[in-house]
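Page 37, top half.
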Amino acid sequence: MTSSSGTTLQELFKGENRPNMFVKSPKRQTSHLDMLKRCFSQDYKSELEFLGGKLATLCYCGAFLSFGMSEAVIGPTLLELGCQTGKGVNRIAWIVFTQAFSAWFGSLTGGLLAERYNCSRVLVTNVLAISICLAFIPVWSIYYGMLITVGLLGINMGMIDTVANVNLIKIHGREVAPRLQALHFCYGIGALLSPMIVRPFLRDQCDGTVVVHNSTNSTIERNRTILNTTTVYKVSKEPITVQFGYWIIASIQIPIILGLVYLIFKQKRLRETFPVPNEGEIISLGDNDSESTSEAMKDLSQIFKPVSLLPAKRPWITISVRVLLITFLSSSLLFLCEGLKGSYAGYLYTFALKSKVHLTSREGAFLSALFWGHFAVGRFISIPVAIFIKPDKMVCINLVGCLVSMSVVLYFHDKALAIYIGTSLFGLFISSVFPSTLALAELYINVTGPVTSVIVIGSASGEMVIPMIVGK
């Protein structure tokens, strides 16, 4: 009995089959791999179901990340680009106008392309073109060559702005508000990353000789700024390192391009596996009660507004006039707000160095990053807030916050602390104006591709005209 019990105890405490808490279980590793496989190889029943999923939305957010990075990189590097081309602030400021004007033209073109071509293919072409333009902008020592490259960059930025918004609205309809906030949150993340990436490559001033033309006489001085004069910088003999920041940003676009390419092939595979019924045929809308017509309408790639969502009685204003009025008001609001945002973000770095505050180049880059950081935080907060608060209330809160923050910067423009506080508040409140305005317009009208193009063109016009007025 004792020997048998002793043998049993020895076999029990041999430790051969005891689990080790420091060794990972193979089942847990398999479960993680299964989760990863399910994320990329989930079984979808239609192309529309795939486009409405999280993976497709993540790819569109990646395109907006590229959009934000390309727009925010010009402002902090404006003086460095002037050193590269040998132009002063008055001449190099035309780069901001060129980028905004090209984005306006790209927004107009993007609305037409979104209705005729596959949006994923348009987006992958735009992101690829943006990466190429970012790689070539800091290399140019010829001023007009740099302007042309910035113009191409702006065209692709405007296309991304229109195509991504139109596609999300077509897919999700009136439930698009949180997804629009997430889309524009990625824009804020990209705009935050750009100043942080180029910050180590910025200098306080150009090296070399500075020629200053005065109204009374001409003097030649070295590394000195004279007020009320036009300063023209000669090209520095020392190499400018800002191109490395641009190349890093251009390389970040590669995984975004790969994600959009995967999206294109997945759409093509689903379209071949589950073809859309009655595609290319004329469907009669007279028999609305038949089950076959309703099922066919659900599978159409073009999303229609259900009749039950329209008002039962004819309102005092016709539908066509309502569309024109809502579109005009939305584009006018975005003209002012986006123009104010573009001018503030574009000249914030230059203002920090040239105004009475007299910040250094690193402090100016930090100020730009602070603005875009609060911009990204504001859009992140707006994602859950958009579920509980209606778009009209969000727009009112944002406008009041922008008014207060701009008042702080205006009345205390010579105080560094006031500049930091006003910049943070302005970035926080201006962040969700654009997606909230689109969601507000969607509550009253059917926001189609042309309507979105007009609204985006209004915002792009503000980003083009108002910075030009401020720069002069």
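Page 37, bottom half:
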Amino acid sequence: MSGGGVGGGSMPVIVFPTSVDFYFGDPSTHKRILTLYNPSEEFSVHYKVMCTNPTFYAVVEPIGKISPQKCTDIVVRHVAVSSPQALKKVDKFRVTLAVDPSCNTPLGKRDILATLHPGVPEPESGSTSLPHGQQQQQQLISSTSNSSDKEHKIATVYHHPNYVACLAAIICLIALCLPTEGEESASNLTDNPWPILTLNQKLVFAYVLGLVTVAILRAT
């Protein structure tokens, strides 16, 4: 909350914002809220909101009371947006604080400028028209949706087994089961229709089988 200095009194008038801006093309800006704070720890204060051009504005609860170290919201509406005289006109609100509402000398006062601008407010740099919380929510939803789409695509790609890898694994297993050159059992199989592989050839098949097995496990 922003603080203001003392203007002709002994108590600071702490109000936020320190100025209000209305925009002709954005109806959501035709209503603004002033937050007024009572910094005293001992006593309540009475506030009063006045305006240099009361026909252009409607103030909800322009007179009220604030408990010690409490705040209150004051709604200000621009009711003459369609008036040509209101455009770009700078008006002034004055907020005064007093312990006794019948006292003519306030403890503090603060002036707040109000302006009706043409068009709509310019978006802040790097932001969108969504509020910050909604923007994060939209980003989270978008990120979750993209992740789900990627997972769905991966599941679709690997839904079916890799038949080429499975066939290669079967061939390697068959090759490893064949007789090895130099073994006594292989020398006795002179009429064996199966080929006899060397030790180096079986090492190659074993190496390929290991690679194919890793590929199959990753795919699943």
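Margin note: The mean pLDDT is 78.
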